[in-house]
Amino acid sequence: MSTPFTPAEVRHAVELLASRSLIRLVTEIDDNGAIPPRRLAGTLHDLSTHQLRSASDTARAHGLVRIAPGSGLELTEAGAELADLYDAMARWARRHAVPAPVCEFSRRIRHVLDLLAPSLSTERADALSPLTGDGAEAGLARPRTLLIQWLADNPKVARVPEPEPVA
What we know:
- The protein is mainly α.
- The protein has seven helices and two strands, in the order H-H-H-H-E-E-H-H-H.
- The longest helix is centred in the middle third of the chain and has 19 residues, at 77-95.
- 29% of the residues are buried.
């Protein structure tokens, strides 16, 4: 599968997808269903008000969640697919005890995204070879394929925002 992403697009996508607050929001809704906006702080009590606002704004802007009347924030199809992608990455990381035998889910996701990032760039196609060999990284071929497909289906995530014009 081709890797049509520039290094800047890869950096942008990894930073967005590896955001601890976004991971927490998406996986909480995936695990427990819609969250009424007024219950976000109580449900995700380990996140600050700013982190919650940023995560929900980012998730809405990228089509990962929507506000369902009467129930609150719920995952869109893209959000549900992202939750599945997060699960696949976390399973690989747990199986290989990375970045540590015991660590937070979002840290595992960040670690896998960091491992995959070099192989996603059009300038680093050679970085794919360790992912297809016989070592632990070989198992990353499936999460990599899932990530590339998800990014292809959700191009806004990799799109680097244009700089704001100076007034």
